[in-house]
Amino acid sequence: MDVVTKSYTLVFKDNLIDILRPVPVELNVWLPEIVPIMPEVGDPVPSLASFPILDINTVTHSMKKADFKKDCTKDDGICTANLQVNATLALPRGDDGISVFRVGENFKINLDLQIKNMLEDAYEAMVKISFTPVLEFDSDSLGICKTTETERGSIICDIGNPFGKGEISRRISFLGNQVQLDQAMLVFNVSAMTTSNETMPADNFQMLVARVESLTDVVLSAKNNVPQYQVGGQVIGESAMKNVSMIGTYVQQNWTIFNEGPGIVPEIQLDIQFPYETKNGKWLLYLTHAPIIIGAANGTCLLPPNSVDELNLTVSTLPEDGSLPLKERRSKRDAIQDTNIQESPINLQQSASSATMVLECGSDEATARCFTITCFIGPLKGASKTNVILNSRLWNSTFIEDYKNVDTVLIKYKGMVSIKNGTYITQKTERNDKHTLRMEVKRDFDEVIQSKPIAWWIILCAVIGGIILLIVIILLLWKVGLI
User: Fold this and answer.
1) 482 dihedral zone (left: phi>0; alpha: psi -120 to 50; beta)
2) CA-CA distance, 329 to 326, in Å (whole number)?
3) What residues does 83 pair with on adjacent strands?
């Protein structure tokens, strides 16, 4: 019996992934079928040597399996691996230790990925990263990751087949251009997978979280329309006022809210303490018009009732309802002390040596009374500003009567800004959220109308009348015998 041996070479296709399961090899044996030519009648019978047949006991089918050689300790061909995931976000951290993605400052998020295998080969090893869909996969350092067609917001990274004992490190980048301000958190779920036997699946998964913040800096500043104000002239009572020009010097304050950016601030609250009267109840500053808001953002201001043009000297728009209540005020020029409060009026006749008198409110030793002007402004974009303008008048008579012995009266306005509805906003500093505006008032003595001197003839008549009266009194006393 002749034996014939023949070898065959099997070549695997490119990108073969499944190398865990054996490759089946199937062998079939058969004889080609030859169709004989039938002889004509009378022709000799052809030889059957040209038509062989297989023995009925011949094995015509055989199935074998070719196993891949694996560096595994067990004979069953299954490797035992232990993958460990260690991932971090290359972002700054807040005080609470959580990574922070700042809208307007950060445009890309880098995820640093480290995968370790502590045991045997991990076959079909890959890493799946699921992320908040508002992000977009950009690239990885070795080009091993690709997006999945069926699941939005996830990528698959091939780390080796097999991935042997050791570690690899990759940097994976995501674009954050579409992250909105109201996106509170960005979440990344990183999981390592393998078809090998995993001894500790718990350390195959890690979740990363980044808090979304908007970085900005809101700066409050203010200035007066003139560096110094002058008072003087004639004392005019409140009842004699006919128009605002009779009240006193025109005053305008310009409060500026500037957003240095780059983030957008949805709403800003501005609170201004407006000193409207002295501590003893006399007019100090008279608000003639409602606040005016101009600039890059719109807004509204709320004031206490009757705080704008209380005497109806000008046409003004009253604030909307819902503002803080203000006590019903007395007539400022006729103000008197409450009988149940024993306090001396604030005047400078008692301290003539004082060079400067400071009028401010908001403390236990306040020398003035204020009401609060509250304005809500927004949204305000980065590198833009909005102004709140206050128009008022100095009450001239109060300064002439009460502060005639003072060189300078310094009036202080206090303002403060705060961010509303923006818990995701982080300011670079809060030290510039408050501002104190100082208004300097000088007494112009040349303009103060002094009392007219008494005429000489009046003095002479008074002296003569006094002498005559004295003579009459002496004569009467003499008549009655008292002298």
Assistant:
1) alpha
2) 8
3) 117
* 243 Rama sector, left if φ>0, alpha if ψ -120 to 50, beta otherwise: beta
Contact 173, 188 (CB under 8 A): no
Give me the count of residues in the chain: 483
Tokens for 205, please give them: 């998964």
**Structure-token pair, residue 297:** 């953002």
Residue 9: exposure state from Cβ atoms within 10 A (0-12, 13-18, ≥19): exposed
Complete DSSP assignment for 291-318: -EEEESS-EEEE--TT-SSTT--S--PP
The 10s digit of each residue's pLDDT in 75-125 is 566 788 999 999 999 999 888 889 989 887 778 999 999 999 998 888 889
Degrees (nearest 5) of the Cα angle 419, 420, 424? 75
Q: Where are the beta strands (DSSP E) in 96-203?
A: 99-103, 108-117, 125-131, 136-140, 145-147, 154-160, 166-175, 185-193, 197-198
Rounded CA-CA distance 162/126 in Å is: 10
Token digits for 204? 């195959």
Q: What is the pLDDT of residue 459?
A: 85
Cα–Cα distance measured from residue 392 to residue 388, given in angstroms and rounded to the nearest whole number: 13
Q: Is the model's pTM score more than 0.90?
A: no
